[in-house]
Design a protein that fits this description.
Number of helices: 23
Shape: globular
Number of strands: 27
Strand content: 15-25%
Distance between the termini: 65 Å
Mean pLDDT: 96
Strand order of the largest sheet: 5-4-18-17-16-6-7
Structural class: alpha/beta
Largest sheet: 7 strands, mixed
Low-confidence stretches: none
Length: about 700
Amino acid sequence: MPETEPPTATHCPYCALQCGTLLTGARGAVVARPDPAFPANRGSLCHKGWTAAAVLGAPDRLTTPLVRDAAGLLAPAGWDEALGLVAGRLRSLRAAHGPDSVAVLGGGALTNEKAYLLGKFARLALGTSRIDYNGRFCMASAAVAQTAAFGVDRGLPFPVTDLDDAETVLLAGTNPAETMPPLMRHLDRADLIVVDPRRTRTAAAAALHLRPAPGTDLALALGLLHLAVTEGLLDKAYVSERTSGFDETWARASSWWPERVETVTGVSAADLRTAVRMLAGGRRSYVLTGRGAEQHSKGSDTVAAFANLALALGLPGRPGRGFGTLTGQGNGQGGRELGQKADQLPGYRSITDPAARTRVAAVWGVEPERLPGPGISAYELLDAIGGPGGPRALLVFGCNPVVSAPDAGRIAERLAALDLLVVADFVPSETALAADVVLPVTQWAEEEGTVTNLEGRVLRRHRLLDPPPGVLPDPAVLRALAVRLGEPAARYPDAPREIFEELRAATRGAPADYSGVDYDRLDAGEALHWPCPEGGNGTPRMFLDRFAHPDGRARFTPVEHRDSAERPGPAFPLYATTGRILAHYQTGAQTRRVPELLEAAPAPFVQVHPDTAARAGLADGQSARVVSARGEVVAEVRCDASMRTDTVFVPFHFPGAGRANLFTSAALDPRSRMPEFKVCAVRLEAAR
């Protein structure tokens, strides 16, 4: 019998769990199945993971550059023509308006190598400070809060398999039963406390479901801390020996007695007491947050409040206990620590730190003075287009802001005001269709590289297929553009292994140290979690001996509840919140191209209590308008008696008139610059 090719071991292209995946077959007939040896998913995949290979054969796959012609249509062009046009326009704009007239928007789905090279390209080849990434819409608040509390931000500072033996887990604003279903295998022994305004699939599996009014999670967390102290559950020895700042934090929380919290959140004082006793009573307890707690104009403070609760109970930095945040995007962890974030250099180094600038500049072969300073956040960057001193050109790699940005109607108008919009993608996303130049690039099974999952584990992405003719990897595109902009070709390696070797040097000694990781070790099956200094074996469990602050102590963060930027009123009497559903991922640019997933969830809907629908003159299955002060969405009514009567929910995966972000608020968290996706004021009415 003929020998069969061994499967290619790689990882799912979707969420940050990065499930191990085995690929077999040729283009058009690739089969994906779970890798039973990978501990994060242990032989399991979700619906999206099982069907991920279908995107490789998408009928509208981009395979040639497109340039907008005189008639306003995107027409095929050669690579030399497209890159020459882009480089020429960039040179002209920079000469006339300065380097910050050009901006870059990256993505949390890019490999570590791509994210690293994109940051280097922006700061050297373009000379711009204006680079940020779509993780600003996803993980920014968690990053700020964890760094303040523990000295460094890693989604889970322990392996996900540690959750297998958990007794109690509080999940604040996260719905893994839909967003990362294989994670539930690690939670099936635990009593779950779920904090969510909706009865999600995760909440339905909970031992206790706390249902605060949208935008009041911070008050709830303050109330839980209050009870931890007043019920005698504070771990005084841990607080004394391993933390600082408790007294000031308690001074803020002391006024949030449970009955006051009940009036603000709607969660009963009895349930609050039960939740704290469950957490404190379990010998193996965890507190985990997600986007529902983070995507607020006070998201950093909300995550900090839950971290304060965990510290009060003595959870972080102890075996079998802990605090973490569930990273969302596939490489949301690596993407935010390797240099494509507005204020950071590779390794989680601050771009304002002279020593960090000197270190990275030396690796890049330039003087530190050549590196620009910190830029502005993703929404601020997009919102500045067309304004005085705002960007006139934007290069987009791996994201789809026409659908993903808040107040999306305004952002679409801002993009249209650009002199040049360039999008690198593998399918014609809504942002690509608005571009002046579209560059076709490789996707997950066509490239080598690494990603870093939610537990800080660096993983190898292996190639099964050669890319279609006419398609280039992102690093080759960046190198070609850099050369056309006058940079030496040797400064921009385009082989993933070579890029990673440089990345190792650039992160050596940094908080997110990758210097001890290499392709050979990863290919040999080693489990390497950063920080992994050269010669080391990585750090699967952080903070066991000390936290990452100079004094080794974790820090409580004093916070105070405040209202969301927008509350219901006479014109807009309902809360609206957004999120993901099982069948789709992010803006749906990939999953809406999988027939099986599109059949499961073909169109946007508005989930609403039957009484709320009836008050608006609507019934199940009818077409409704969800209207805010910024815009409106047309969606099918889906009545659900478990919904709060003051709240509607719309998934954000759909384009056009179904874009949930047409109504969302762009109010920003003052520390993380995270937009307030999770709560705004709307009204519900029949579609015209």
